[in-house]
Amino acid sequence: MKAHCPIVTDLALKEKSTRVLMCYNATWLRIGLHIVLGGDSLRNEGRESDQEDIFLKLIVENQFFTHTVIAKSYAYNKLVDGLYKPGFFEALGSIILKRFLLLVISLDRAKCESALPLKCGIDGKDGGSPLLFSPHSHIKSSRQAVQGSC
Question: What's this model's pTM, rounded to 2 decimal places?
C-alpha cells in the first residue's frame, strides 16, 4: 500500500496483507467482506471452522485484491489478461487500500457498538459478540492491523 511498492505487484506485501486479514475472527471477517464486497456468497451457511477459513482466504485472495471493472477499463486487449495501460496498478492499489480501510473501520466500529443486551447479541449466548481477532493471532487491535499491512 506504499506508493513505491503497490500491493498488486508485490506478492510478499499481498501475502502479508492476506495474513493480516485472516487474523480476524471468521465471523467478523465474513461480515466485513460482505460490507466491502457485497454478494450473497458471504452469507453464513454453517461451514466448519477449517472450511470457513479456507473459504474466506479464497475470497480475500480472489476478490478483495482484484477489481474487474478497473481491469477491463485499463486492458489493452480484452482477450489477453495481464496487459494493462499505464495507471492500472495505481488505480487498483487505491481501490484495495479503500477496501482495506473500510473493512477495518467498519469492523472496529461494529465491535464497539456490539455491547448489546442478551436478546440482541450477535452470538446470542452472553449478549456480547465474538472477539474481533482470533485468540491465536498476533494482531489484537485495528491499529495493529493497519500498521501490520503497510
Answer: 0.80
